[in-house]
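re: that chain from earlier
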Amino acid sequence: MKVALVHDWLTGMRGGEKCLEVFCEMFPNARLFTLLHVKGSVSPTIERMEIRVSALQNMPGAAARYRYYLPFLPAIVETWNTGGEEYDLVLSSCHAVAKGVKFPRAARRVCYCFTPMRYIWSQGDHYYAGDWKQWALRAVRGPLRAWDLRSNRQVDEFIGISEHVAERIRRFYRREAAVVYPPVDTEFYRPPLWERAREDFWLMAGALEPYKRADLAIEAFRRWGRRLVVVGKGTMLDALRSVAPPNVEFLGWQSDETVRELYGKARGLVFPGEEDFGIVPLEAQACGCPVVAYGVGGARETVREGETGIFFGEPKVEALLAALNRAERQVWEVGKLRAQAERFARARFRSEMQRRLTPSGA
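^ sequence. v structure.
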């Protein structure tokens, strides 16, 4: 097949890019369209694709502040000259505007949807909480919603990353969606070779954005007094670091190898935000690390209560502390943690997507 892949932006290797990486392996001769590409920010598998960028690439400061261009992204997408070539398949991996990119001639358009645009549909008030940018986002929310609904005309089929996201697609878009869970590299993320006692710290890993609720974890550990190690970067890093107590340590961005080592040492992973799916908890479980998670959203589909983790029911410090104390008292079986992660293995993702995307399933 002649395939076009479309991805919102290439600025780092997060969960969405790990899905895209598999798509690039499945269709190595595809063209990859993305609004913005920060060279060297993604894996070699993605970097070696034929990558075509939009006008956003040359906007002032876009590499660092591309989210500030959100009100203008529909116009950039609408005026993007993607060429007049015919494609058998246009596969967009989208959480923002990628599904709206127009191709004059395409036999089939499929959107692998990470979520309907979070900024305008479900968690907008968590972004830029308390400053002028939140008010600006509210001002453009109506027009962006209208464009987002119109852009669904470019999509023949939706595939959601979880039942939680499929329900959002039904609620906001009035469209049905199949579900294919994202991949977890269970070959790379494994328990330590030698069984050893877990060290005396908890781990939080991922993008430090408002909806991730790192602030909730930091306040809980301030009261608890135990050590929390935070891995990741994002718009909240400086603000969180400025208010954190001495028992909370920020490591910034770390390599996959270092994160894997931390999963293998930590007493558990703290996952306090509402997630669309959440690959990080599955990576932790693959390494034998239990999870304490907010019990809504994608975590309900990836963590087994009492077997691989503990849920807390309210986004409050007291609820999180109660769950942490329960997790400390429980004995966790590495075999059960590992088995749960293997249900989401990379090979399973590739097989399910190939069956859905290729005419013969071959």
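Residues 93 and 257 are 26 Å apart (CA to CA).
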